[in-house]
Specification:
Helix 1 (about 25-40) packs across helix 2, helix 1 (about 25-40) crosses helix 3 (about 95-100) and helix 6 packs across helix 7 (about 210-220). With about 280 residues, the protein is of the alpha+beta class. It folds into 2 domains: about 10-115 and about 250-280, no CATH class; about 120-250, no CATH class. It has helices at about 25-40, 45-65, 95-100, 130-135, 155-160, 170-180, 210-220, 255-260, 265-275, and strands spanning about 10-15, 20-25, 75, 105-110, 110-115, 120, 160-165, 190-195, 200-205, 210, 230-235, 240-245, 250-255, 280.
Length: about 280
């Protein structure tokens, strides 16, 4: 690990969305509340520790590149929409240990913080790029790679295979929200582009072409659980969708991290399994 850049642990300003107040707290203390919210606190230590490395990286990357949460004038926010999840009530001893074990550790690619993407379950294989899973093209992210998700055996049934029936009026509204175009009466749909891992990237709904990751968010990410689709058709006034996995598929699979932790892998090995060509650096003692 690169130990040349050691500095003090930062104190950050955190906007508490529930009350509207702002509080100052040490970065490592803040991260305990993030890790506890993002992953089951009863999971193995090294899975939680890998999550801690990503949470720390996400926080540092956002503060460096966007100034944190400019709308609130703070470094961070407890709102998932504005920043990342935070729930200090869920903190337990394992979470505290996971954060302590990785103290100061962040993930970098060629000297810059990575976009610390993670999700629940890849449905067997992670996305080959941020564009494939998230329609993200703002900047290159060559450290994203497609790998087998080792969490498949542990993941709950609703992640392995899921299906949904969505009323067409809801689909029409989602297309309008996503593209600004009205698909009209929807009689046909099809997947028009898939990425290397098999994820739908673009779909045709009526006469409108839509980004599949954007459509997923508009329909509800708990409804259309992934873009690794096995079915995408129209019948009886509904859109029928079926697929595998849960989440966007880019970066670290949380169920995969759990499986690797159970196999005895270190937090750093877990990170390097899902991200290629990265360095894990300790930024403060």
């Amino acid at each position: 690990m690169d130990r040349e850049k050691l500095k003090e642990e930062p104190t950050i300003s955190l906007y508490i969305a529930e009350t509207g107040e702002t509080k100052q707290l040490k970065m490592e203390e803040y991260l305990q509340g993030v890790v506890a919210a993002e992953m089951d606190p009863n999971w193995p230590l090294n899975a939680l520790a890998a999550q801690a490395i990503l949470a720390r990286t996400f926080t540092m990357e956002r503060i460096k590149n966007t100034g944190g949460v400019p709308a609130r004038g703070t470094d961070a926010s407890t709102s998932v929409e504005e920043f990342q999840a935070y729930d200090p009530k869920r903190i337990n001893d394992t979470v505290v240990k996971a954060v302590e074990k990785t103290r100061g550790e962040v993930v970098k690619y060629q000297g810059d913080y990575i976009k610390a993407w993670f999700f629940a379950d890849a449905g067997g294989i992670t996305a080959a790029s941020a564009e494939e899973g998230l329609a993200y093209t703002k900047e290159p992210s060559p450290y994203v790679r497609s790998v087998k998700d080792p969490g498949a055996a542990l993941s709950p049934p609703e992640n392995k295979v899921w299906q949904a029936e969505i009323p067409l009026e809801k689909v029409r509204a989602a297309v309008q929200e996503t593209t600004g175009q009205d698909p009209g009466a929807i009689s046909s749909v099809k997947i028009t582009r898939r990425g290397p891992s098999g994820r739908a990237m673009t779909v045709q709904i009526g006469k409108v072409s839509v980004s599949a990751p954007a459509l997923r968010l508009a329909l509800g990410s708990e409804v259309m659980r992934s873009t690794l689709l096995s079915k995408f058709s129209v019948a009886n006034g509904k859109l029928l969708v079926a697929g595998k996995g849960f989440g966007h598929g880019v970066g670290m699979s949380q169920w995969g991290a759990r499986a690797l932790a159970e196999q005895g892998k270190s937090p750093e090995e877990i990170i390097r399994y899902f991200f290629k060509g990265v360095r894990i650096e300790k930024e403060w003692d």
